[in-house]
Amino acid sequence: MSLVNLAHVCSHLNNVSKARLGFTSIPHSNLHFKLCLAFQNSGLISNVVLGGPTPPRPHKITGLPSINDESVEPVTQSNIASRRLWLGLKYWQSEPVLGKISLISKPKRRVYLDVPSLQEIVRGRRARNVDGLRSPGESLYLSTDQGIMEARDCVEKKVGGLALCRVQ
Description:
Layout: H1 3-18, E1 23-27, H2 30-42, E2 45-51, H3 58-62, E3 84-89, E4 91-92, E5 95-96, E6 101-103, E7 112-113, H4 115-122, E8 139-144, E9 147-150, H5 151-157, E10 161-167
Antiparallel strand pairs: 1-3, 2-3, 4-5, 6-10, 7-10, 8-9, 8-10
Helix pairs in contact: 4-5
């Protein structure tokens, strides 16, 4: 798991939301894909489409079926480096839904949280140098053995893990 690349993705998403773009792409990796799916499940982004260096067709972005839908190009050794995740961003009253993203674990300092620490964070208190969740829309994402989950879901399932990022 490369936290350096995750830091680049977080800063890219911050810049894109400030620029009010509706569509962007990030490099494809399993970590990025699972984190973007967690963002989509939380309602922060509208869709995630796996594609190549060129943007996908509009019907794949909106989710509408197409009559002549060609299949996605298979992944080979020659095209693995050019795979991209295309993300549709959401806005509400001309403000981005995806707010500021900040990295919790750094490449040289990884922060692991157990269930009691997560309970304190979800209640709004500071634990293990991680500030509590105080705003209603604030989220903390963790990499667990059950996949990437939001902190409140981890508390419900009694699972700890590596703290990845916070969305405010």
